Amino acid sequence: MKNNAKTDTPFWDPSLPFEERLDWLLSEMTMDEKLSCMATRVPDLERLGIPGFSVGGEAAHGVEARNDQNDLGAAEPTTSFPQPIGMSATWDPDLIKKAGEVTGTEARVIYHRHPDRGLSRWAPTVDLERDPRWGRTEEGYGEDPVLTGVMSSAYIQGMQGDDPKYLRVAATLKHFYANNTEAGRGWKSSCVDPRNRQELYLEPFRRALMNGRAEGVMTAYNKINGIPGMLNPEVREILKKEYGLKGHVVCDGGAMELVANLHHYYGLHAETLANAVKAGVDGMSDRPEAVAQAAREAWDLGLITEEEIDEALRNIFRTKLRLGIYDREPCNPYDRVMEEDLNSPLNKQICLQLSREAIVLLKNENKMLPLDPAVPAETMALVGPLADSWYQDWYGGTPPYVTTLRQGMKEIQGTQVPFADGLDRVIFRCGQKGVAAAADGRLYLSEEPDVFVRDDWGEGSYTFRCERTGKYMNTRMGQSDKESSETGWIAAEKDAPFDWFVMEIFHVLEQGNGMIQLTNRFHSPVEIDEKDFLVSMREGSAAQFRMEIVENGLEKACSLVQGKEKVILALGCNSMINAKEEVDRTTIALPPAQEHLLEEIYRINPNVVLVLFSNYPYAINTAQEKLPAVIWSATGSQDMGTAMAETLFGNNAPAGRLNMTWYRSDEQLPDIDDYDIIKGKRTYRYFDGDVLYPFGYGLTYSSFTYTDFSAAPEDNRKLRVSFCVTNTGDRVSDEVAQIYGTAPASRVKKPLKQLLGFRRLKDILPGEIRKAEFMIPIDEFRFYDVISRTMMVEEGCYRIFVGPSSAQPQLEAFVEIPGRNPGLRDLKKRIPADHYDDYENITLTEGHFGFTAALPVNTEKTGTLIYRSCRPEFGSKNAFFHLKSEKGGSLELWIDGKRAGEWEGDTRTYEAVPPFLPDENARKEAIERTKYRIPVYTDVKISLQDIPECPEGEAELQIRLHGDIKLCYFRFE
């Protein structure tokens, strides 16, 4: 209704303050109109002449305008940068900011084509990447909160611009918080104690809000300590009040309905909506009709007030005003865009440079790289399934072009390098016939079978591409009544493995007699129907196939590399298969077929350069041990192949750095659902084992030395650090200098090392000395003190070192840093149960009075809570524990290794004051009334025995829980 907008009202007057315009809007809207606008997709307000504008859209590494999930028609090409995990590997915030500017500008161009959406983008993802198996690792910025904060803030600043009033586009942080598991994300609870929360999980959000000034935040699907993300009161208390978020908060897509459907936390969507708004969520990213119905029901039931509704609407509409959508005369300086700003030469230049800087050289023995571009192409071989492939990812847009490594190498050499993908060509036989593709793509049994290219992606996932048509085998999923009859049909009709369910995935089940069965993405057997067509998701029996190899890809690749001077082996991932939203990896190992190809190629010809295209770490131990050179790049960039080819031939000098630890094996990783980074020894901050590649690691084609290092406090608030970097090699190169710190020994576990600052020093000439200076806030050493319940810096002598990675200190200094000393726990005050120093067999869940409750993970075993540095309370006679138990359990209190008391029972039948039971009738009545009780939180008392004296003036408490006891807090009296 853009042309029917009533722009003569105060709402459209750009000369008025935003709040005055919002006051007018909210005063004029009816309650029905307000209730209709609680979703992120809002309708036109016809009566007021205000066109609807939807909040949402993706921009992880460029604008996503594929239009395959809406009704806007064909895909609209946009600049596609490397995946965020690759952008962050540049360690170059200035360049990422330029990528953000490109993204914001192109979003403006798309908005002018579709003026009801597109200027509020759900990016970046700042979830801390504690586990490399997480399915959405590609979307994040690494495992460190400092790096994630700096790099994501740069992207945000580029996206949003620096105008004090207007936004180029509104960036939205994802996903608040502790959201690193895809399997079960819609119902699982992430257990996060105060130290992990304050020091790690919240830090990227704090930095991206306070430094990047992100306009919005999206909550997570998962629970945090028993509370669904969109109902978490920390949305209001931390994001808005503490971090100063002035924009808006939305829930993740469909999350409102999942609270009832999966979490089973509430029974009505109305309850969810009302309490989400109270928690600080302003917009529901669910079906608009479901949100409107829930909002009306919440209003009718008195679950929500008009004041609360107005606050949410004010926050969402304020963002829209900052975008300039409702200005009578266009005033937003960022709105002066043209179609030529889409995929412009400048945008392509920025993308190519970002793709170059994102490449990380992992090994380069005997200067295997760079290759000599003058060497004839026929003396080399290019092999591997990723050598001539480019795969789309879910949150990427449609790029204007893509380049594979093979194409990039041809651009440089002018001719094709001999190539083999290493993949088998197979045919499927069933009886006397074979599988072929009909004219409409459907697969059927034919006298003349088609040949299919088999790609084994590991973890049981295969794709099959018809060599004659170039189309991938897929299972049809009917999206309409007309198509529903086609659900389960097997066809070869897709250009690439790409849709939400990735129906191009198949599984091969060996039958032990030379025969196989095929199952589809959902493990439904492939059958043969009465007309000889292949189908699945039926009630029949699985067909038996004989999969015959008509061309052995391994043998062809091995034959090709024989006698070659150099072999380029390209391996890696498919972003839609190996890991994605809703799909975690179960292993960090390379797909076995790729590992086998690597070993066989090396056996034939050891002069191998491994090019790894992946969006997450792999345990490539064989490659690191045997191959002379290894180089890595994330996927997603339209210039992926060009940038890598330029790097291989020396036209680009690699200097990227890893933003995650690359572990050697799965055995070095805790359970993926374990969110305790500190106790679980996750990430470079706490992992003390041998790794394949450390955090911050990356080589260059040159060499550098560090000199003249100094580090000293300044004004008790900052640390002044300076040093010089000298290029001692013979090539112009960047160098990423990194500063780390280690805290002195303390009563609590501190990081082994932590990133304090970094800088990508550009284009250092051979022999050039480049000086770098930093002013590092001493607050970088803050930790959460569970005794004072505050963030604090502990005074002491800190080790500061500088180098090219976290594991390569070149120079160091020891600096006395002012701070505080932790005190002792005052046991006469309430001690929150989750503010422990250590634990065993404990998880956390929602408690009482705003406290978090601790309870045993396995109720058949003892759960132990440990509290150190407690002030002995020798005069105390009782200890009170605020707890709840439904089925019964016990709590033991131990002080300095001696048992001080015990309580046993449940809080359904428990009575603080023992009842007076003078006769049998009273006893029967007491038994009868307990039948109608429900378990409640209450204070239970333990009468203390002699408290052992502690010669050092402090004591250690242990609370041992048995059964289903949920403990919130305790105190002595």
Question: What does this entry look like structurally?
Answer:
The protein has 973 residues and is α+β, with helices and mostly antiparallel strands. The chain folds into five domains: 31-340, TIM Barrel (Alpha-Beta Barrel); 356-421 and 554-668, Rossmann fold (3-Layer(aba) Sandwich), CATH 3.40.50.1700; 424-553, Trefoil (Acidic Fibroblast Growth Factor, subunit A) (Trefoil); 702-817, Immunoglobulin-like (Sandwich), CATH 2.60.40.10; 825-972, Sandwich (Jelly Rolls), CATH 2.60.120. The chain contains 20 helices and 45 strands. Strands 8-25-24-23-9-10 form a six-stranded mixed β-sheet. The longest helix is centred in the first third of the chain and has 21 residues, at 93-113.
Q: Going by CATH, what is the homologous superfamily of the largest domain? A: Glycoside hydrolase, family 3, N-terminal domain
Mind describing the biggest β-sheet? 6 strands, mixed
CATH class of the largest domain: Alpha Beta
Q: Mean of the pLDDT scores? A: 96
Global geometry: globular
Structural class: alpha+beta
Which characteristics define this entry?
single chain; 973 residues; alpha+beta; TIM Barrel; Rossmann fold; Trefoil (Acidic Fibroblast Growth Factor, subunit A); 5 domains; six-stranded mixed β-sheet; six-stranded antiparallel β-sheet; 20 helices; 45 strands
